[in-house]
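Still learning. Any example?
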Amino acid sequence: MTLDRQRDSIKVQYQDDRNLNVRMGLHERFSTNPYGWSNWVSDHFTFADKARILELGCGPGSLWTANRQRLSSGWRVILTDFSTGMVARARETVAEEEMHCDFAVADAQSVPFPDAYFDSVVANHMLYHVPDRRRALLEIRRVLKPGGYLYATTVGEDHMVEIWDLLLPYIPDIHDRVYEVVRGFTLQNGSDQLAEVFKHVRSDEYPDRLQVTDAEALLAYVKSSPTAVIDALTPTHIEAVRASIDERIAAEGAFGIRKSSGIFVVR
């Protein structure tokens, strides 16, 4: 995928939070780990009582609203996203929860803040979308104070592979299409990229899987991923996929899906 095509794809996919909410909803309803992803991620944060924190690619602000009870009055949290629609939604979501954060539209490849400005930077499932990732990592290092932390989450190469196996009869290159999106920064190759810019990198993987009992929810997830599907499924294909899901649920009680997600803690 060319850099221009990747940038255009991101703009379409994340012009607002509708597609993202569909995908998040599947995880919220059918994940088997009762200790939620946002709680698990925030357990890795080591923010001081007074800290300046930047999130890149904040989406609708879900990481912070899910952890609103943990926020300290001594933190200044600045939520940014490449998408103006996402920043607008994050602002609404945070206001609904009566939380205080600051907001900005920002490109991770050119972070609009001074050198050594932040104690921590958070990049939650977004670095694989950045066209020039090394440039973004250098920008993150630039805006971090000496000894500051980057918390970067991502997925593994076999993340939710069973979903895309459903589409193989109709989109033979579906795994290449899906992996093209995330292959740039995964649990398998992210450490080496981070180590080129930062001295200390460690990783941790979140134990979880999906047990889906609603075929429509799974189909909605597929339809929310235009980068992978790109209108390649006809109505006849969709009905066949629905039938396959229903058969699996009837036979096994649920459609099981492996998950592979984790976090890099970087200093």
